[in-house]
Amino acid sequence: MRSATAHRVYEGDSRFEVKSAGTDHSANTVLTEEILTWADRIVVMEKYHRNHIRKHFPDIYKTKRIVCLYIPDEYDYMQPELIEILKVKVEDVYSRGLI
């Protein structure tokens, strides 16, 4: 629910065009080569997600900037604590020019 929450929080932010997808086959939108190709930058929540991209989409992994926010999978959709963490971490990586 982290990516879905991030999508909802940032979909109206003029600095970003956002899409969200999960690495698990049960995700509402499963990560695909098409989604990764569309992205200029890729933001993941855990190192596992970056490793998943490296394993399943090695050519994209080599050519795209991937930023990890290091947010554990322990929050519900739109949980206020998750929203606050997302805002702090996204603003940090944005201010440093990483996304």
Features of this protein?
mainly alpha; 5 helices
Structure overview:
The chain is mainly alpha-helical. The protein has one domain (2-95). Helices cover 47% and strands 8% of the residues. The protein contains 5 helices and 2 strands; from the N terminus they run ααβααβα. The chain has helices at 2-10, 33-38, 47-56, 58-63, 80-95; strands at residues 41-44, 65-68. The model has no long low-confidence stretch (mean pLDDT 95).
Structural class: mainly alpha
Main sheet overview: 2 strands, parallel
The proportion of residues in beta strands is 5-15%
Number of strands: 2
Helix content percent band:
40-55%
| Mean pLDDT value | 95
Q: How do the strands of the widest beta sheet line up side by side?
A: 1-2
Number of domains: 1
- In terms of per-residue confidence, which ranges show pLDDT below 50 for 5 or more consecutive residues? none
What is the C-alpha radius of gyration, as a whole number of Å? 13 Å
Distance between the termini: 21 Å
Number of H/I helices? 5
- Give the overall form: globular
Topology record:
Blueprint: H1 2-10, H2 33-38, E1 41-44, H3 47-56, H4 58-63, E2 65-68, H5 80-95
Parallel strand pairs: 1-2
At a glance:
With 99 residues, this protein is mainly α.
